[in-house]
Amino acid sequence: MASAPPRHVPGTPIASVGAAAYHNFARRFPAFVVHLRELKAQRKHALDALENLGFRAQRSKLRQLLHEREFAVFDAYRGVLKAGRIGNATPQSIEELAASLDPSSPTHERVEQREITTNARQREVQAFGPRKRALQLFVADLIRAIHPPRANQYLFHGGIPAAIAAVEAAYQRGMTHAVELDVKAFYDSIPFAFLADVLRPLPKAVVRHVVFDETIRVRPLSASTTIIRRAMVPAPLNETQGIPLGAATSPIAGEVIVGQLLAAHEIDYGPDIITYADNLLVLGRSEWEASARAEHLTDVAARPAYGSLRLRLKERGHLLPNGTSSGGGFSSGVIFAGQFGSVDARGVFSWEPAPDRRLQHQIADGEVCPTAEQIDKALRRVSAFHRAYPKWREREQREARDRAMLTSARYLRLATPENLSVATRDIALACLLNRQSSDIPELVPDYGPMYDGKRQRLLTEAGHLLDRIFAQDTAAEQAA
Asked: pTM (2 decimals)?
């Protein structure tokens, strides 16, 4: 299989175009990549057929797929790729891994326990090796085939863009008030017995060893450890419930549980409940209707039949003109899954970061000048952060202001000619986009007397630059 690489390498079955490690693998083993693409197509056909079967036929086909494992090579490849091991992989090593995969038995492979920060919240997640990852990816696809998410669940149906489009469509139907709920400790609170029942006809052994994964809870009798501890984070040993945060099966398992709640005969709100993962937005035509629906949903979710889910109130908001809605604690605008939505007099929506998310990037606003490392990190993230909100009405102006404040802080931290030039340029751009030359003092942070000299110089340079720009504009207008 290691023949000379062709002039054109076929696209990866699952990796992005920029995946350098994959492209190196594809150049080394082009025939194997062609084989993987064929397996991918066959596998998709089998999963599509599974989705359209009745319960008994579905159970029979499901057990056949789990037993025969005709696509195991493709699953092993995905596990190796997702675990970041493709650089050292060969077709032989992938085939050997495929031959060892057994979703019905324990897989004792090391798991790293990591602490990550997302949206200013610290969470403990598990990072899995290629064997566990391969099994999780396979089983996750089976779950999606036998339990496809409902139309109003958007984690796998278009993500955040589709979810906010659904909110806008609800507004057109007269749904002007909303209550945002989420599930407290969602993944941590799912009992095994309930999970196994919800995921039927997936065999209980597969749920136990892949979705629930008992091996990361009970340390084996052998001397080898199952968990590698990092940053003094305790491993989740001897826990009796909960699914691992970081497993490929957990998001779809969560969707199935939320979907079962939405399908409850006691809940008849249809598209007036919109979900993204464990965030639920309950809509109504009034404060009373939205609140009553949210309270009823919370009561139903707490029943054992639906997993004893603990829904908690996050936000309440409305999409009416200011002063139109009062009482009940509803504020202007709707917050959902980190997005803050509002509508203007013309009925045009704007979706921007929720206040708590925006504050993460405004490190220059404090009383102490950030370090150069903190500023550079924030600058690298600010563009990507704003691009994540394409329907933000003032996105360009806000990005320019955030960048101007950060580059101003960098000049105050390190007063080099280059930093002065960049900060001056960014301040001028922010003022032009916001059409406010008087904004200059607001764009240059004030960190106390020891920075006064540098701050004054920056204010002066930015003012001179804007004066020159305005003078040139005036001359051009007069000439025209």
From this structure: 0.81
